[in-house]
Write a structure and sequence with these properties.
This protein is mainly alpha-helical and about 190 residues long. It contains eight helices and no strands. The model has no long low-confidence stretch (mean pLDDT about 85).
Length: about 190
Amino acid sequence: MIGKTEKHMEFERIYLDYFSKMKNFAKEYVLSGEDAENIVQDVFLELWEKRELFSMQINLIAYLFTAVKNRCIDLLRRRVLVKEVADKMQEEHRLTLRLKLDSLEEFDQHLFMEKDIEQIITRAIDALPPKCREIFIKSKIEGMKQQDIAARMNISVNTVETQMGIAYKKLKLELKDYFPLFLLFLYL
């Protein structure tokens, strides 16, 4: 194409007349010059793709402001949503830390007397189903590996893993008032 078409020249005139105005308008809302520029470039790209609008009787200024406004709204909605999700995750993390702190602060120091700990742990382990209890004892108290437990009991390693998962769930429930004791089992 050697010369510019009439639509091309019309688009160029509109671009030069309105780009900076639209960018300033967008920047008032999205605050970032880069974001404002990207929004306006997208609007002008869309306008070029719909260049048949040049031959119609439309209010071009209203069209540009509306398109820029809508893209600003979309960007701000995404940012608000991302911020709300991040805040919620941060609040959940804060609550988890608070629960752990409260748990430790409320944890009765008298429980660390050897006899008391032994009784609490023995009661919790005794509450496990027989097979589950046997596997748990072999693993955590006798220190056997899962493969060795499976071989000795003539069961699969998967069964050992499943039973250990059941044991942890039941112990967590049984020791809910003694959370640090439950953690002790996790790290044995």
